[in-house]
Amino acid sequence: MMKPLVVFASVLLLTACGNSTSSSGNGASSGDTSSAAPAAAPATEPSPASAEAGNWKMIPELSRITFTGTQTGDKFTGEFKRFSTVIQLDPNDLPNSHIEVTVDMASADAMDEQRNQALPGAEWFGVSQFPTAVFRSETIKRLDDGKYEADGKLTIKDATQDVVLPFTLDIDGDKARAFGETSLMRTLFKVGTGEWEDGKWVGLDVMVTFDITATRVGS
Fold it and tell me: What is d(CA 207, CA 135) in angstroms, rounded to the nearest whole number?
């Protein structure tokens, strides 16, 4: 029975960027949760203090994190339906800016019953032991033409890797939209172990895409 390839990592990152990118000229921290429920693991959730502060708030109904993988050579796309963000981002003070994204791994929907049944298992996300995945930025850089790059650590299950997340940012008044995508190798995060580790049935590379819209708090 074929099991799903799902990439969490970028999803976290994606969200982070989305919210971070939504910040404008003044610095702030922002905490928000997409969909109905917050990510599950108290140990990795944003603290109440950081979650309450901020000047940008993600609009869940306008924000998405999706992942695209391959199974027996055919592409499939899924999404994470619950994720939260804590953003402290000042485009004029990037050295002191920070992005943190927490993803509820149990919220992954690979758009297929068979994949969704396999995904929470120990060979894939190991949800019972590792309910959340977390991305924390270490540096944020401004590139050319409205492009940014967040370098940080992504933790999925008990594996932590350096990740670079490129994104674009469009700010229009009190609303901002961030879009980006990055490719992750799932085996670096112990996603798809055992018989699924060689990539014969489920591809090793997963493309994570995020499209995040945020509004300025108080607007």
Answer: 16
Q: Which residue has the tokens 């050579």?
A: 73
Condensed to tens digits (0 to 9), the pLDDT of residues 84-125 reads 877 777 777 889 888 888 899 999 999 999 999 999 999 999
Q: How high is the mean pLDDT of the chain?
A: 78
Query: For residue 44, what are its two tokens?
Result: 């990795």
Contacts of 74 (CB under 8 A, 6+ apart): none
Which SS3 state, helix, strand or coil, does residue 168 take? strand
Q: Which long-range contacts (CB under 8 A, 24 or more apart) does 113-116 make?
A: 114/1, 114/2, 114/3, 114/4, 115/2, 115/3, 115/4, 115/6, 115/71, 115/76, 115/78, 116/4
Phi first, then psi, for residue 8 (nearest 5°) are -90, -45
Of the listed ranges 31-35, 79-83, 148-152, 196-200, the one predicted with least confidence: 31-35
Residue 72: exposure state from Cβ atoms within 10 A (0-12, 13-18, ≥19): exposed
DSSP letter at 142 equals E
- pLDDT attached to residue 30: 52
Between the alpha carbon of residue 203 and those of residues 5, 6, 179, 192, 211, the distances in Å are 7, 10, 24, 10, 24
3-state helix, strand, coil in the chain (%, to 5): 20, 45, 35
Run of H or E residues at 17: helix 9-21
CA distance 87 to 36: 19
